[in-house]
Amino acid sequence: MKKYRTHTCGELNKKNKDQNVLLSGWINKKRDHGNLLFIDLRDNYGQTQCVIDKKNKLFKNIEKTPLETVIKINGKVIVRSDDTINKDLSTGDIEILISDFEILGKTKELPLPVFSDQEYSEEIRLKYRFLDLRRKKIHKNILLRSRVISFIRAEMEKLGFLEFQTPILTSSSPEGARDFLVPSRLNPGRFYALPQAPQQFKQLIMVSGFDKYFQIAPCFRDEDARADRSPGEFYQLDIEMSFVDQEDIFEIIEKLFNNLFTKFSKKKIENSKFPRITYENAMFKYGTDKPDLRNPLEICDLTELFIRDDVNFEIFKNLVKKGSIVRAIVTKNTKNQPRSFFDNLDKWAKEQGWSGLAYLTIETNKDALTAKGPIGKFFSNDALKDFMKISKSEVGDSVFFACGKKPEVEKILSQVRTKIARQLNLINDEKFSFCWIVDYPMYEIDEISQKIKFSHNPFSMPQGDHKNIDFSQPLKIKAYQYDIVCNGIELSSGAIRNHIPELMYKLFSIAGYDKKSVEEKFSGMINALSYGPPPHGGIAPGIDRIVMLLANEKNIREITMFPLNQNAQDLLMNAPSEVNENQLKELNLKITKK
Hints:
Layout: E1 20-32, E2 36-43, E3 46-53, H1 59-63, E4 70-79, E5 94-105, H2 122-127, H3 129-132, H4 136-158, E6 162-163, E7 181-183, E8 191-193, H5 199-207, E9 212-220, E10 233-242, H6 246-264, E11 268-269, E12 276-278, H7 279-286, E13 299-301, H8 314-321, E14 325-331, H9 339-351, E15 358-365, E16 368-372, H10 381-391, E17 398-404, H11 406-423, E18 431-432, E19 434-438, E20 443-445, E21 452-454, E22 481-486, E23 489-496, H12 501-510, H13 515-521, H14 523-528, E24 536-539, H15 543-551, H16 581-586
C-alpha cells in the first residue's frame, strides 16, 4: 500500500463508494457542526470533504489542528445524500469518513488566509509567496501558465520548429532598455550582459542553416515595473524562420494563436484572420499602435474646420495657426446622457494633467441644427453641417475634442477613447480581438536629443528595393516590422531581418553609429552575415501577457510564480542582497557609496 495517498484530493467520486483510501494534503477549511467536524482537504488537484464523528477518539486532536497543517487521513468513501452534494467540486458527490489521521507538516500562525482570495498588500503576498501560491485563483493561474507553455511547445513541433537554447551570458547590446551586467572574474574589468532577448543568437541560428527555431526564452531588462511588465525578467516565445516573408510569419502566428486561445478560453476570437492596420492609420484612428478593436470609437481630424471664419472658438483657432491639430471622438446617440457624464469626463481629463475636454452635442431646434455644450455656440449652422459630414456624426451624437501637437493629441484621445467606451459599456469583454500593426517607420526623432534613432528593431529590413532607397529622407523609410496586438495589449514585436551587411552599415550610420562601432557592438552578427546568410525573419510573443489575457488578469504578478515587487526586489529571498568583500575582490570590484 502507498505510504501517503492512494488517490489525490480531486480524484474520488461515486465509483469509489465504500473503498478505504489514503489522502494527504492541507487543511483548507474546517466546519464544526457539533457532533460532526467537516474538513476540506486540499492538494494540487482539488478538494475532498472529510468528516469525523465526535465519538471518534481522534476528534479533539483534529479539532485543534490549525488550517494549512499538512495531514494524512485514512478513511472510507461515503456517497453524500442528494441534498448535500456540492456541485462546485469534482469530488462533491462523496466524502471521506475519517478512521485515522497523522500530521505530516506543522504550520505557524498564518500571515494571510489561504482559503480566501481576498486582497492583501503586495508586501505580505510576496514575502509569503509560497502561501499566496496555495490560494485558489493564483494557483489556478500558475497551472494554466504551465499548460499554455506545454501546448505551445507541442504546437511549434507540429509546425516543424525545433527548440534550441541560446546563451544567458552574452555581450551588451543597444536594444532599447538597460542591461543587467555580470562582472567577469576571469576577465577583470569586463562584463557580460544578461540577454534582453536572444535577437542576435536566433539570427545566427538561421545563418547556421537551421530552418525553423523556437524557444521559451527568458529575457532580462532593467526596466521599471508596470502592470503588464515585470521589472527584471520575462519569458517570450522566441521564433525565427529562414526563407520567409512577412506573410509567412503571420500565417504561423495566426494558426498558433487561434488554436491556443480556443483551447484555453471560452471567449470568442473576433477574426481568425487578423486584420492588418498600418502604423500610420492606427495612430490616426486610435491614437495608439496598441488599439483595442473591441472598442468601436474612432478618432477623426477636424483641424480644417477651425480655420473657417464661421467657427469662432478662438482658443483652438489660435493654436491651429501655430501648427496644432484638432482631432475628435464621436459618441453615437448620447444626447440623453446626464450632465454628470460630460462633467465627470472633463474632471477626469483635468486630473490627467490636461486643460479639460471640450465637447458638444448636436441637436435640432425647429428643424435648425444647434450644438449644445461649452463650445457649441462657436459653430455656425453651415459649419455644423460640414462638421457632421467630416466627423460622420448625426443629430443626437456628442463630440469630444483635443487640440495640440500631434503626439499630445494622440496620447490624450487614445485614453479618452478607452475611458468613454468603458463608461458607455461599449467593450465586449467576452471576445479576443487581434490585429497586426504593420509598416512601422524605420526611424523616429528622439524627443530629448532631437536626433534620429531607430523606432523599432535596428536589425530590420527596410521596405522597397534596397538598392534604390532614398536615404536622404530617413523618416519616410518604412520597415518590414510588425506588432501583434490583442484587446489593446501588445503581445509581440517582430520583423523581417536585414541580412545584407552593407545595408546594415548604412542604416546604422543614419542613427549615428559609424562602421567601427557597429563592428564592435555586433561583431558576431556582421561577421556571420558575410558568409551566405539566408533571408529570414521572426517574432517573439510574450508568454506573460498571453497568460494574462487567458486568465483575465490585469497584473502580471497574478500569473508569475515568484515576481519582484515594484522596486525590483524579491521579498521572499531578499534579493538583491549585499555581497562580502572577498566576493568583490574576486571580481576586481569595489563599491563606492554616494
